[in-house]
């Protein structure tokens, strides 16, 4: 599959979806990802995925990918993980991250699906206050 084929699928996906290469550079950024993070696709393509997260993950994320490429040990791929994302305005939010791996045009890419957990978190906080 080509990057353009990914783009045409992404246009129809309601969840935020981001495709990166093996050096963590963003290849495509869905419309839902644009709404969630407050960046346009044109602004983020070619930049490192780590700009979308706060520290400590921001400064470690290149190492996470390097570790995976070296060892093949999956810590997020195929499992999912609740992590913290960071929007353009610097605010942070909880998100469920699912990462997959694919080969496109002979190159390895990673696909990330993101579900915003902000509303779920707020509902849980409200329930906690009722106790
Ligand atoms: C690994 C955080 C987004 C691709 C990881 C790990 C964390 C993390 C905590 C595993 C650390 C470990 O236990 O070793 C985040 C955060 C994100 C984010 C906070 C918020 C934006 C993404 C996206 C993609 C991605 C969107 C792909 C498009 C990867 C890959 C690995 C990884 C390929 C290594 C493979 C693995 O450990 O299974 N990330 N990530 N990440 N992440 Fe991210």
From TrEMBL:
The PAS domain, residue ranges: 2-72
Protein name: Sensor protein FixL
UniProt-annotated location(s): Membrane
Shown part of the complete sequence: 104 to 234 of 472
PAC domain residues: 70-129
Function, in words: Putative oxygen sensor; modulates the activity of FixJ, a transcriptional activator of nitrogen fixation fixK gene. FixL probably acts as a kinase that phosphorylates FixJ.
Source domain of life: Bacteria
